[in-house]
Amino acid sequence: MILPVMKLGTLVLKTVCKPIANKLKKEAGRHPKFRQLIVNLAQANHRITTNVQRRIYGHATDVEIRPLNEEKAVQAASDLIGELFVFSVCSYPKFSITI
């Protein structure tokens, strides 16, 4: 009985958090210092992801990785921030129940 209720509660929480995450994504690129921070975050994420993919596929990892342009970096970082927000809010009740 508790499992369907918990799943329904998590879905409701996720639905409520989506508009907040979308607002975060919109506002992420507006402030200049925060914009630079998220661009750096996106570039680091891009380098790590590309290196991991190159290792998985057996390609050389000592090549220079072209950075994302600023707009793509802002979009990637704001998507990451939005998804992390939803994940953290939705996973908090699951972990707090087990503690």
Automatic annotation (TrEMBL):
- Going by the entry's taxonomy, the superkingdom of the source organism is recorded as Eukaryota
GO cellular-component term (any):
mitochondrion
Q: Which GO terms describe its biological process?
A: regulation of lipid metabolic process
Q: Where are the transmembrane segments?
A: none
* InterPro entries with a match to the protein in the record: OPA3-like
Q: What is this protein called?
A: OPA3-like protein
Q: Which organism is it from?
A: Zingiber officinale (Ginger)
